[in-house]
Structure formats: C-alpha cells, structure tokens
Specification:
The protein is built from 16 helices and 15 strands. The longest helix is centred in the middle third of the chain and has 17 residues. The radius of gyration is 21 Å and the shape is globular.
Length: 421
C-alpha cells in the first residue's frame, strides 16, 4: 500500500501560453474565467469533473502534509472550485494539522476578494508567477501581466500575511533571458542586480529563481532554431547565477536547492518532497506521480486524459515498474539540494554496493571538479559548492555518471531537468 503524504493537482488552463512554456497547458484566451458565461467556463468545469473522478479512484492513504495546486494558471478557478478540490482531498486522505497548501497565482488573474476566498478555502501559501519587474521583459516573455499588476498582487499578499491569513508566499523570477526587441544585447548584470534587489525589497519570504531553458516546440525554441533569439553567452549566464546567490544571501535568504531561496522557516515543504526522493500523489493532465519508486505520467492532452480517467488504465508513458528510481535521477534530485547526498547510500539503493573502493575511484575521477571547487566531500556527504557547484550541477552530474561507467547511465537532456509533478 502506498503512503504518500503529499499531493500535486495540475490545473492546465491559462490565458495564453508564454513564449518559454513547454508545460501541459490549455490556453483559453485573455477573457477566460470559471464563472458561468465566461469563455472557457465549460471547459474548466468538465476538467474539474475528471480531476475529482481521478482523485476518487485512488485507494486513499494517510493524511496529507503538503498540497500544491499548480498549472497553468490555477487562479482561473474560483474559490468555490478550489474549496471543492481541497474538500475532496480532506475526505479521501485527510489533511494533517499544519498542512502546507500552496496555490500558484499569476498577477492580473485575481483581486483581493478572490485571494480572500482562496484563503478561506484553506490555501495558506501562494506562489506568485512574477518573472520580472520590467515591462519590456514581461512583454518579451509573452507574459500577460505588467509591473503594476505584480506590485498590486504583492501588496495584497503582504497584507494577507500581516493579518496572519496567509502563512507564506513565494515570488518567481527568470534569469538568463534573451534580448528584448530593439535591444542590442540581453540584459546585463546591472539590470539583473536591480531585479534581485526589487525582489528582496518586496519582503517575499521565499524566492524561486529559474534559469531560462529553451524547449524546441516553444516560441523561443523556434526563434532560436531560426537564429532570431539573442541569448546571454555562457559567461554572462554564469555571472548572473553567482550574482543571484551572493545578492540573496546578503538579503537574508538561504539557498536550499539550485533554484530556491528562503528566509528562515519559509522553505517550501512541498519542494523538499521532490528533492528528497519521497513519494507523492499527482492528479490531472500531464501530472506525474511517484509511488513506490515508480513514475506514472498522465496523458498531456485533454482527450487522452479523459480516456485515461474513464478507463483507469496505466498510461503507456509510465516508467517500467521498479522498486527504485534510476541512479541518475537519484543523483540529480540529491545534488540539487544544498545538503547534497550520501553517495554510498544511493549506490546501495541502486544495488551497487561495491564499498569504499568504488567511492574512492569516483572521488579520484572527479578531481577536476574538486580542484575547481565545484564538488565537496564533508564527512560521508557529497555536495556541490554554492554558488559555483550548484550553478553547474548538470555538468558535474554528467561527469559523475561518466565516472560510474556501466553502473550509471548517461542522462538524457530531459533526465537532467528537475522532476515536474
């Protein structure tokens, strides 16, 4: 019997697809909403019915300690719909005392009354998709909101937290962005420093800073293939990573994972579930659960997802059943964390308990990474340095897997991405 204590619910609907987005989303147009008569309302209602049916089909389990509603733009749902989803989770599993319940919100997709409704439904943490404080950057990313929308949303969240109605909130930023139209080069270090300082000045208890990645089927991916996208060079991107770590550390934020920083006591408990290798439930279009070490990816289109819910059949994209996650993925999720991994334990879990001799060989094989100050050994724990090692985590992981040779597998580009629920 599986016993996850976390659940991810995917709400795929959004107003428009951002230029970098490769997630399983369903754009409904700028005027879309969930209320009767609004464009997209029927689609949202039909999807929520499927989502409720999927949750009801599970065997239940222990009370949940974390719940995360992501998307898409979950704030297209009205508070009653969010309340209905949380109510079903309470009925099916129960919510543990102090359960962290996070809802992703986009600026310009909610107002103060709507926020109050979400909080009354049980939401106690918000992840705000700000991405930038610069209007020209927001437009270049294909974002719908602008700076004034972001500042207004931050004011509402700050007020809610001051009233103790909201436990915590997080702000997303994107770094290593391409040159905006009309600019001769991508934003430099001074511009990025200004973005970071504005984020600190908001008082956000948690900051997630993601480096832009290009996916082939996105607007940015296609522009890049045509030579129409001017990205920062590797040196500028690396300098931005180091500046992020130093600036946020000076602002009081601790880095607990490659992309995540928090004031004391505000690290995302749900994020830690993914990076610790624990199990979690996942529901909805394109969502991926982890149960007993087995990954199950749901279909990414509405029609295929509806059929899957109707039939409750394993999706063909599900990983081959196994009691262990692949070694490369265990290393990836472990090395993304500031505390790193106990490599001997991971090798044993992968059935590769060859003792200290293998660890010694690996340590020697990675001398280049050690000499560069990227990889550290503290006691029996291997970890990446901050900021240099964490900023080059994928490169170090590739070197480690090459050193493992036949006992590890060379990761694919997809395998080196953070796991998405």
């Amino acid at each position: 019997m599986f016993a996850p204590r976390s659940a991810y619910l995917h709400i795929p609907f959004c107003h428009r697809r951002c230029f970098y987005c490769d997630f399983a989303v369903v754009p409904l147009g700028d005027r879309a909403g969930a209320s009767a008569g609004e464009p997209g309302a029927a689609s949202i209602a039909a999807y929520l019915e499927l989502l409720h049916r999927e949750i009801a089909s599970t065997p239940g389990g222990p009370p949940l300690s974390t719940v995360y509603l992501g998307g898409g733009t979950p704030s297209l749902l009205n508070p009653d719909q969010v309340d209905g989803l949380l109510g079903q989770l309470r009925q099916r599993y129960g919510l543990a005392p102090g359960c962290e319940i996070t809802l992703e919100l986009d600026p310009a997709s909610f107002d103060e009354a709507r926020l109050s409704g979400y909080l009354e439904a049980g939401v106690n943490r918000v992840s705000l998709g700000g991405q930038s404080f610069d209007d020209s950057v927001l437009a270049s990313l294909g974002r719908r909101h602008r700076r004034h929308d972001l500042l207004q949303a931050i004011t509402w969240l700050t007020t809610a937290r001051e009233r103790h109605a909201l436990r915590s909130w997080s702000l997303d930023l994107i770094q290593a962005i391409p040159a905006v139209p009309g600019a001769s080069a991508p934003p430099g270090l001074a511009a990025w420093q200004a973005q970071l300082q504005q984020a600190i000045d908001t008082g956000a208890p948690h900051l997630s800073v993601y480096e832009l990645t290009l996916e082939p089927d996105t607007v940015f991916g296609k522009r890049s293939q045509r030579g129409q996208l001017q990205l920062p060079d590797d040196d500028l991107a690396a300098d931005q990573l180091e500046l992020t770590s130093a600036t946020l550390r000076a602002g009081g934020y601790g880095r607990y994972e490659v992309s995540n920083y928090a004031l004391p006591g505000h690290a995302s408990r749900h994020n830690r579930v993914y990076w610790s290798g624990a199990d979690w439930w996942a529901f909805g279009l394109g969502a991926t659960s982890c149960l007993g070490g087995q990954r199950l990816a749901r279909p990414r289109t509405r029609a295929a997802y509806a059929t899957w819910v109707e039939q409750q059949a394993p999706h063909p994209d599900a990983d081959t059943p196994t009691s262990r996650l692949p070694l490369d993925e265990r290393l990836l999720v472990g090395l993304r964390r500031r505390e790193g991994v106990v490599l001997a334990s991971l090798l044993a879990q992968a059935g590769l308990a060859q003792g200290a001799s293998l660890l010694g060989q690996l340590w020697q094989a990675l001398q280049g990474e050690r000499d560069a100050g990227l990889l550290l050994l503290e006691g029996n724990r291997w970890r990446l340095s901050d900021p240099a090692g964490l900023g080059l985590s994928n490169a170090v992981l590739r070197s480690l897997l090459r050193a493992l040779g036949p006992v590890g597998s060379e990761p694919t580009a997809a395998g080196l991405q953070a796991p998405e629920p």
